Amino acid sequence: MSPFADFLQFCFSGLTSGAIYALIALGFCVVNNTMGIVNFVQVDFVSLGGMLMFSALLTFGLPMIPGLLLAVTGVALVAMLIERFGLRPARSDHPLVLIFLTIGLSIILRGVIKLIWGKNRMALPPLTPDNPVQILGATVLPQALWILLLTIIAIILLTWFFYRTPLGLSMRAVASNPTAAAVVGIPAGRIRLTSYAIAGALGGLAGVLVTPITTLNYDVGVLLGLKGFAAAILGGFGSFPGAILGGVGLGLLESLSAGYLSSAYKDVSRFCCAAAGSVCATEGDIGKVKPKIATRTPSHQERQKSRWDLSTIPICNYSTGWPRGAHFKGVCRPDGDSPAPGMGSCGPWSGQREAIHRAAE
């Protein structure tokens, strides 16, 4: 093969792995945006998706497409049960407590998978016959093309859901400002349940797609989940575009380092890159475009107006000579006794001050 064909082969391999990592990373980001925690059960959703697909095809004899839909739906339902009966009854809503709780639930789910399907390694057939396809000199398996296609479809559906449906808009509102979302009456329980269902569906889809290429085992999702977690960190934890870019970039880095350096360095390079991303892109720098803020020197009128900003001016209650119990409320400047223009007169500070927690209109 020519050097260009080799490079293209490595790129296709990296894109295939990166698409799987991106799906898992998106599942991490969905739960983190709505609940503010790291959902470590996500790694076992990948294993469960492959196991349900195995049972649907080989135990119940379903065709490929119905089996895929049943596996993804089954993982989403299990994820909803975990949120409803595993996380919601927790007495504390502290993020650290919930994170440790997801670790325990992950161990329990992994044990249940081992009890039902056993510890033996299994294999899943590909979605279509495994006849290699030649693309510009590179050999690509049809399963890799299915992974890329279904990942793109999942990202499009996820974008449509978050930007075009009322429930998706509510989830974006909770991710943007949980306090304001609670004030307007957005149900937090429903949002958390939906976020876990989406995370489970994404993890189950990743497991269904990747297990025909790799072997299927009860803990196959652990390493894949850690790679997806590294992709989410690299892209800025919580950023959807960053999760996609982080997953694809991590897959390409893994494939190119294994091809041109050595396969022994692919894990090292991947997690070193994720560690660097945790320092440089913790707020989603890869997936977000930060606006440029223009600064200028305020004018004299603006400086004078800012001296009377009601958000920083205290109220003073000055007792007058009026009937007993009557008080005259005036607004005093913090640096003197003269009143603000148009706000009436006020005597010396009485010592009773309270801040106005609203901006001047």
What does this molecule look like?
61% of the residues lie in helices and 4% in strands. It has 361 residues and is mainly alpha-helical. It folds into two domains: 3-280, ABC transporter involved in vitamin B12 uptake, BtuC (Orthogonal Bundle), CATH 1.10.3470; 306-361, no CATH class. The chain has a two-stranded antiparallel ribbon with strand order 1-2. It has a two-stranded antiparallel ribbon with strand order 3-4. Strand 1 (133-135) and strand 2 form a beta hairpin. Helix 2 (42-59) runs antiparallel to helix 3. It is globular, with a radius of gyration of 28 Å. It starts with a helix and ends in a 30-residue tail after the last strand. The model is unreliable at 282-295 and 306-361 (pLDDT under 50).
Q: How many beta strands in the DSSP annotation?
A: 4
CATH architectural arrangement of the largest domain: Orthogonal Bundle
Instruction: Order the strands across the largest sheet as they lie in space.
Output: 1-2
Structural class, from helix and strand content? mainly alpha
- Runs in which pLDDT lies below 50 for 5 or more consecutive residues are 282-295, 306-361
- The radius of gyration computed from the alpha-carbon positions, rounded to a whole number of angstroms, is 28 Å
Supply the number of structural domains.
2
